[in-house]
Amino acid sequence: MQNLLNRHTDEVGITTLTLSQPERRNSLSFSMLDALGESLTDIAEDSATRVVVIAAEGKVFCAGHDLKEIRDQLDSYDFQLALFKRCSEVMQQVVNLQKPVIARVAGVATAAGCQLVASCDLAVAESSARFATPGVNIGLFCSTPMVALSRNVSRKHAMEMLLTGEMISAARAEQIGLVNRVVDETLLDDTVYGMARTIAQKSGHTVKIGKGAFYKQLEMPLAGAYDYTAEVMAENLRAHDAQEGICAFLDKRKPEWKDS
């Protein structure tokens, strides 16, 4: 795994997962997906991790699936299906992880690489970054990347990317909601880790509740979403951190979180 993905946790609980195969454009080969999935499984149980950053080495954030690997298995439907299902599982791990995940995007993110960016809770890109879902250009529509993309940008913007296969700039990605912020490359780390540190200072229990509720209510009709989130808030108020936070605010002091 070390040659594929590096993992580091700092003193405030920010764990960085770095895709580390720049010579292969950090492609999501079966082995890279396994490495990423296994790390996310570990992080889910790691109380020291409060926020996750997904980064990459080199000039390409992630070029999507390894087309050479796919070509070598063109006659194996079972392999292809297993690959796309494994990728789908990993993307869902990112969404379902009870800790915020931030994409640190330097360079190009295409196809399943763009899907990875869209699957993260937040994304910060350097100004020269570019994004695309170019499968249509090679006869393989980006159908699984479409799932994450269409849940982050409007239908027409998603369809434009999917049907044209054209690269879009970081500025355009920010405009349509694919990324949160675009910054000069010299400010990328300060912005990403500044955001991560801000989140890491919050109650981990509260963030966990909020992230889970956010994605669940998105799939509900309006009335059901309000019913569900009312119950979530009432249950949230029973937690130590909510009661401590309210009292600390009223007492004009800093709260002492217990992540419970």
From TrEMBL:
Alphabetical keyword list: Fatty acid metabolism, Lipid metabolism, Lyase
EC number: 4.2.1.17
Pfam families, per the entry: ECH_1 (PF00378)
NCBIfam families: PRK08139.1
Xref: InterPro entries: Enoyl-CoA_hydra/iso, Mitochondrial_ECH-domain
Record-given protein name: Enoyl-CoA hydratase
GO molecular function: enoyl-CoA hydratase activity
